[in-house]
Amino acid sequence: MPVVVIANPKGGVGKTTLATNLAGYFARHGHAVMLGDTDRQQSSRAWLGLRPAAAPPIRTWEINGDHIARPPKGTTHVVLDTPAGLHGWRFADVMKLAHRVVVPLQPSMFDILATQDFLTRLADEKRVRHGEVAVGVIGMRVDMRTRAAEQLQRFVEGLGLPVLGYLRDTQNYVQLAAHGLTLWDVAPSRVARDWEQWQPILHWLDGGAATQPAAPSSPSAA
């Protein structure tokens, strides 16, 4: 049972956006997916409360921010949303469960600096070093024409971690989330550009090798 952890100790970087859309992808493909939320704000659980009954089901378990449990029997895929400031015993428990860790990161020098120690710690984790857990970074709200995008790619490459993809800043995510929906719950023509950006990410999450996105070229001033 694959467990995908969405983690970054910095708040406001798009963890819940990634977690809900990934859970929606698994649900769309008929998997018994569970979306766990270890954040005290319980944003993912609140989103599930908005999800239409006709949409592919996504379950959650009764859990709070001070206790991380294993999902119940029958679950085939787990997506775990985590809080800002993830550290200590909570970080250790999450890493025991994880098969893949996805780190959303915005192309801001402030975000990069705030996440640097966390990524270094992830790379040094025993299960990561032994190949039991794979770690990848996703650039969030990225305009590939900017110098900021180029800086983000250089930073992540320097850590020896793959950049799985870049997701643009679009109202699609905001508007769908307001109705408990994901990119996979609407007509592909409505979100075609976003589906395309997700393909290398999904390939890696489904067990494929990371394929490096095209490097930013001819950036303009950020």
Automatic annotation (TrEMBL):
Outline the extent of the CobQ/CobB/MinD/ParA nucleotide binding domain.
Answer: 4-182
Database matches in Pfam families: CbiA
Q: Cross-referenced InterPro entries, in alphabetical order? A: CobQ/CobB/MinD/ParA_Nub-bd_dom, DNA_Partitioning_ATPase, P-loop_NTPase
So which domain of life are we looking at?
Bacteria
Please give the name of this protein: ParA family protein
